[in-house]
Design brief:
single chain, mainly alpha, about 250 residues
Length: about 250
């Protein structure tokens, strides 16, 4: 059952909720972050697969890698958002702003650090590495805006919406555990079937050490799917447990 609290209270003796951050549960934002992250960074992978030249059997690898990275970065964004909300989210509006700021920081941090380290590795094994003078700063900022900031903003917006609504509506711990667990199970299902959807149907030809990198991309996706499956099953089991009284 979902209960909504107004500043005037609900019923005789009810007290207004003045500190949403005190009852905010990190499991909500981390689950939402992982779900949105799969779509956001997976979409970046779709764009890369359609615009970057690669061997035909490795052309769709960025999709699997992007979706896998999205689980990690989305979860990190959710955890950062929850940390900032707990410190600054005194009202629903401030909770939303704090979740957006924390989510943007958490989602963009690793990509920003990676970009500052230097140009990415060549896609094809026979290509020469990109010179540093070509990477810094114009091209780096373009990659940073499109591949790091854009998906991080999408994730942060979703986290802000969830933080705002969660600050106005009180969910019971069992509902939180089950609903967030179902999100993880949905992510797991998507990651399990993704390699089959994007698999190359043609003949794979040998080319040195890069015969079939799609196998590594598929294993990466399945590993993330397994992790999401475990998290989802555990959360759903806790939510359905008769003795479940803890945090979401």
């Amino acid at each position: 059952m979902i209960q909504r609290f107004h500043s005037a209270g609900v019923g005789r003796g009810a007290q207004p909720i003045t500190g949403p951050a005190r009852r905010f549960r990190p499991g909500v934002l981390s689950s939402v972050g992982a779900t949105v992250g799969v779509v956001a960074w997976g979409s970046v992978g779709v764009w890369r697969a359609g615009h970057e030249d690669n061997n035909p059997w490795n052309q769709t690898n960025p999709i699997a890698y992007g979706a896998s990275k999205g689980i990690i970065l989305g979860t990190l964004a959710g955890l950062f958002a929850a940390l900032v909300v707990r410190r600054l989210g005194r009202t629903p509006l401030r909770a939303a702003a704090a979740a957006f700021a924390g989510g943007l920081l958490g989602g963009a941090l690793l990509g920003t650090l990676r970009g500052l380290r230097g140009p990415p590795d060549p896609i094809l094994y026979f290509m020469d590495p990109m010179p540093d003078e070509q990477w810094y700063w114009s091209l780096m900022l373009q990659h940073w805006a499109a591949r790091t900031i854009l998906p991080a903003v999408a994730c942060a917006v979703a986290l802000a919406v969830v933080a705002w609504s969660s600050s106005r509506w009180l969910w019971r711990p069992r509902q939180i555990a089950v609903s967030t667990g179902l999100l993880w199970l949905a992510v797991s299902l998507g990651m399990f079937v993704l390699p089959s959807v994007i698999a190359y149907d043609g003949t794979i030809e040998g080319n040195g050490e890069h015969v079939n990198e799609s196998a590594i991309a598929a294993l990466t996706a399945w590993l993330m799917a397994l992790i999401a499956l475990i998290v989802g099953v555990v959360r759903v089991a806790f939510g359905l447990s008769p003795r479940r009284r803890g945090r979401g």
